[in-house]
Amino acid sequence: xxxxxxxxxxxxxxxxxxxxxxxxxxxxxxxxxxxxxxxxxxxxxxxxxxxxxxxxxxxxxxxxxxxxxxxxxxxxxxxxxxxxxxxxxxxxxxxxxxxxxxxxxxxxxxxxxxxxxxxxxxxxxx
Length: 126
Prior knowledge:
Blueprint: H1 11-29, H2 39-53, E1 58-59, H3 60-64, H4 72-84, E2 88-92, E3 100-104, H5 106-124
Antiparallel strand pairs: 1-3, 2-3
Helix pairs in contact: 1-5, 2-4
């Protein structure tokens, strides 16, 4: 049985792919109609996206504890601003109305899809 050749990507190629992604993602973030996000809002939204991508339901309290580099109060303020900017919505737990779950809006889904397209494009370019 013949073994398959190992295809490796050089560190330079990986760096170029990442750089292309950063430039494309920056362009998406600057599109008209896309609300500007500060660095903390971006990290909070990315953390939420990672949890949602794994099928997790995230409460406000859980989200406040997800960041290692921002205080729970800062995260809570950013959740409020993300909601105001239309990236997240809240819904109450069916059994306990004190518990609020965070969910992505259509705007957030579109934003993530655009960033995903950036990643695909960056990976396809030579």
